[in-house]
């Protein structure tokens, strides 16, 4: 994808007030590559370091423009997402796209979400992983099946675009 093409998407994210939220826990091996890919599409990025004990903190120091929330101890993905989404709301973003830091979500899918938002504003969009992919583990598949119905903050193995309603509870 050319730089010119990704600059169009960067502009659209700004216009639509979209932030990308990346929760991470001990994904030091994949985090930098995920951030680099997301940076091709987005200027506004919030990373929630959920108590990582690997080199995640050092990696995040290499990206001073990215907003970082750091939990001193691991609180779980649900809490990491909740804190990232709360920060996005506090900063005035209208939407958030969450992308996992394990490399199994693709920043190149961001344009699909933007197009969907433009067609149907103010909707919740959920994109599921391709469960037939070689890099999807059995536990990832179980996570998709068991956690999706439970809570919006327990979304494992999906990307989400959320409309930040001023009256939203829990944020």
Give structural notes.
The chain is α/β, with parallel strands linked by helices. Helix content is 39%, strand content 19%. It has helices at residues 3-16, 28-39, 56-61, 77-90, 110-119, 138-147, and strands at residues 18-24, 45-50, 67-71, 95-98, 125-128, 158-163. It has a six-stranded mixed beta sheet with strand order 3-2-1-4-6-5, with helices on both faces. The longest helix has 14 residues, at 3-16. It is globular, with a radius of gyration of 15 Å. It starts with a helix and ends in an 8-residue tail after the last strand.
| Main sheet: strand order | 3-2-1-4-6-5
Q: By helix and strand content, what is the structural category?
A: alpha/beta
Largest sheet: 6 strands, mixed
The N- to C-terminal Cα distance equals 35 Å
Q: Tell me the Rg in angstroms.
A: 15 Å
The number of distinct β-strands equals 6
- Gross morphology is globular
- What is the string of SSEs from the N terminus onward? HEHEHEHEHEHE
Bin the helical content: 25-40%
Number of helices: 6
Overall mean confidence score, pLDDT = 78
Low-confidence stretches: 136-171
Task: Describe, in short, the structure shown.
The chain has 171 residues and is α/β, with parallel strands linked by helices.
Strand and helix map with partners:
Blueprint: H1 3-16, E1 18-24, H2 28-39, E2 45-50, H3 56-61, E3 67-71, H4 77-90, E4 95-98, H5 110-119, E5 125-128, H6 138-147, E6 158-163
Parallel strand pairs: 1-2, 1-4, 2-3
Antiparallel strand pairs: 4-6, 5-6
Task: Give the tags.
171 residues, alpha/beta, six-stranded mixed β-sheet, globular
């Amino acid at each position: 994808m050319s730089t010119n093409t990704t600059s169009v998407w960067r502009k659209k994210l700004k216009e639509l007030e979209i932030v990308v939220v990346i929760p991470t826990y001990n994904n030091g091996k994949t985090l930098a590559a995920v951030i680099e890919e997301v940076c091709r599409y987005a200027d506004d990025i919030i990373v929630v370091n959920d108590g990582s004990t690997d080199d995640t903190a050092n990696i995040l120091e290499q990206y001073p423009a990215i907003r970082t929330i750091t939990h001193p101890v691991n609180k779980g993905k649900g809490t990491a997402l909740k804190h990232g989404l709360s920060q996005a709301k506090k900063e005035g973003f209208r939407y958030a796209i969450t992308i996992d830091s394990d490399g199994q979500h693709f920043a190149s899918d961001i344009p699909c979400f933007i197009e969907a938002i433009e067609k149907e504003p103010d909707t919740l969009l959920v994109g599921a992983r391709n469960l037939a992919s070689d890099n999807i583990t059995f536990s990832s598949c179980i996570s998709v099946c068991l956690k999706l119905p439970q809570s919006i903050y327990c979304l494992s193995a999906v990307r989400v675009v959320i409309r930040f309603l001023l009256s939203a509870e829990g944020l």
